[in-house]
Amino acid sequence: MSAPPLGTRALVLDGGLSNELRALGHDLGDELWTARLLAEDQAAIRAAHAAYVRAGARVVITSSYQASFEGFARRGIGRAAAARLFGDSVWLARAAGAEFVAASVGPYGAVLADGSEYRGRYGLTVGELVRFHRPRVEALAAAGPDVLALETVPDVTEAEALLRAAAGCGVPVWLSYTVTDGRTRAGQPLETAFGLAAGNDQVLAVGVNCCAPGEVTAAVERAVAVTGKPAVAYPNSGEVWDARRRRWRGSPAALAESAAEWQRAGARLIGGCCRVGPAEIARLATALGAS
What we know:
Elements: E1 11-12, H1 17-23, H2 36-40, H3 42-55, E2 59-61, H4 69-73, H5 79-95, E3 100-105, H6 108-112, H7 126-142, E4 147-153, H8 156-166, E5 173-177, E6 179-180, E7 183-184, H9 190-195, E8 203-209, H10 216-227, E9 231-234, E10 240-242, E11 247-249, H11 255-265, E12 267-270, H12 278-287
Parallel strand pairs: 1-12, 2-3, 3-4, 4-5, 5-8, 8-9, 9-12
Antiparallel strand pairs: 6-7, 10-11
Cofactor: Zn(2+)
Keywords: Metal-binding, Methyltransferase, Transferase, Zinc
Domain Hcy-binding: 1-288
């Protein structure tokens, strides 16, 4: 286990795990989302990770984004067995050939499976959110990932809770917000959001994910200016989910065309999120000279 080296060149992250699992024929219409396959089909998760490694990803994010002890318990999976599944998520990424493994710690709203990770402001205190996240962090940290990805964070309250939950776990973290219109999803200024990580030596990078590609450059510039740290950037494809029609609309953006700009702005971990598959990660790796 070693933290990813963040020098002048960017490391390529993977793309959307759910995207590749669906491409492999798996139904993810479930409150556990990709984490369901931790209990039911680990070979599928390993295969999806491997597709991104072959495409040029050096950092692979685990399938634990929507995993929780509470969610597993609703499936009759006890605490000890659930802890093993968290650990398996790290092992599966390594077994797929990942050079570095980022253990995903998704937001509380993701576990609710109702879209509230794109709103934030759950009505919970920082302390309540710390108590929810800490067991997940502990289970993942025990499996020895290279970094914890505190990702798709919608608001400052949850970011504070996640940083507290991860404090002292012995694993570096990156903090990544989901944003819209130059603010957190909860409407807070990015200067305030990124400022939580300033001076925190456990945080190796700060940035954005699960957002429109057009949000990235300005957010990365703010993250670097506020924290003095390298940035992480892995946006969605640029398509928009139409909840009423239950389908994606719009055309995907060519992330590879923007990758060099993001790198110049200070991003040192660059990849994709929802609707970004191995083919686009391969193009991104080539654009960054990493293939």
